[in-house]
Specification:
Layout: H1 7-17, H2 28-33, H3 37-45, H4 47-54, H5 63-77, H6 79-88, H7 90-93, H8 101-110, H9 121-134, H10 137-142, E1 146-155, E2 158-168, E3 173-180, E4 187-189, E5 194-196, H11 198-201, H12 204-219, E6 224-231, E7 238-242, H13 245-266, H14 279-283
The structure holds zinc ion.
Zinc ion binds next to α4 and α14.
Domain Putative exodeoxyribonuclease 8 PDDEXK-like: 37-284
Keywords: ATP-binding, Helicase, Hydrolase, Nucleotide-binding
Protein name: Putative exodeoxyribonuclease 8 PDDEXK-like domain-containing protein
């Protein structure tokens, strides 16, 4: 059985919820008060980098990937949300030579679609992914419910936050939209000495476990998690993916096992460990001890 919280914890969580909004959800300040699947996974991959990011000393370079993801998500949220997102990020979305400031602003105010033929390559790809999903009856039928729902709660005494792409409480499920390179791409797992799918590689089951718990705590409904994935291939492929119970339990175990240590690091009680491999570690590293040629690879 998945572990559940008591009523006192539930009340504490609900009073906290009022201070998280759509406009401050991604602010770093909220990542200090709340744990999230994104930051928990960052801590698992490199504590030093994540602490530098939380303290405002380091900004990882994933702006484009984030923007492309938000472009797709906002499209399926609502026409207003998409138009707002496009207007706010027009300098990254449109080819600069073709879209002058004036043209961009006018084009957007007249019609959100007006400048779609001036998209930069990553957003042209996002458009292909959007059409792949938007023209699929199964997707339209299933991607029904409240969009971008902020949920909060506690897991083993720690405050967590999450933002659910599509929540259907009536039918008891939620969906997270993911873009990925290829549905059947294999990732080598060094610890397990085996291949992982993209879902396991990016530890999406942990995100699904957390969302399931936070939805349960916020609304009292145990929902089934699904991922709808669409690929970044020239002709995008798509799939609706379930998460087996044992994967959810695996995620739960990982949180219960690692969370205390991560909280200690976050609070400054324990020095963050350097992974030695990420951009942050590389950019702050000094030549150290001599490494044998036979120790270079795992
Ligand atoms: Zn690192």
């Amino acid at each position: 059985m998945l572990k559940q919280m008591n009523q006192n914890q539930l009340k504490k969580t609900q009073t906290k919820q009022s201070s998280l909004t759509q406009s401050n959800y991604y602010d770093l300040a909220t990542d200090i008060s709340w744990q999230s699947p994104t930051f928990f996974k960052k801590f698992l991959s490199c504590e030093a980098e994540t602490m530098a990011e939380i303290n405002g000393n380091y900004k990882p370079d994933f702006k484009e990937a984030l923007l492309v993801g938000n472009y797709l998500h906002s499209y399926f949220e609502s026409p207003e949300a998409h138009l707002r997102f496009v207007a706010e990020n027009k300098w990254d979305i449109f080819a600069k030579k073709k879209a002058t400031k004036k043209e961009t602003a006018e084009g957007l105010s007249k019609n959100g679609q007006a400048l779609k033929n001036n998209l930069t390559a990553p957003f042209e790809q996002a458009e292909r992914m959007i059409s792949t999903l938007a023209s699929d009856e199964g997707f339209i039928e299933n991607y029904q419910g409240d969009k971008e729902v902020i949920v909060t709660g506690q897991i083993d005494g720690v405050n967590w936050k999450g933002k659910v792409d599509c929540l259907n409480l009536d039918k008891g499920y939620f969906i997270d939209l993911k873009t990925t390179q290829q549905l059947d791409k294999k990732y080598w797992n060094v610890e397990e000495h085996g291949w992982d799918s993209f879902v396991a590689h990016w530890n999406y089951q942990l995100q699904m476990y957390v969302y399931q718990q936070l939805i349960l705590q916020t609304y009292g409904v145990l929902c089934t998690p699904y991922i709808i994935a669409v690929t970044k291939e020239k002709i995008p492929a798509k799939a609706i993916i379930s998460i087996p119970e044992e994967r959810m339990l695996e995620a739960e175990d990982q949180i219960y096992e690692m969370q205390d240590h991560i909280e200690d690091v976050k609070a400054g009680r324990v020095e963050p460990t350097r992974c030695g491999k990420c951009d942050y570690c590389k950019s702050t590293a000094k030549l150290g001890k001599i490494v044998s040629m036979d120790d270079l690879i795992d």
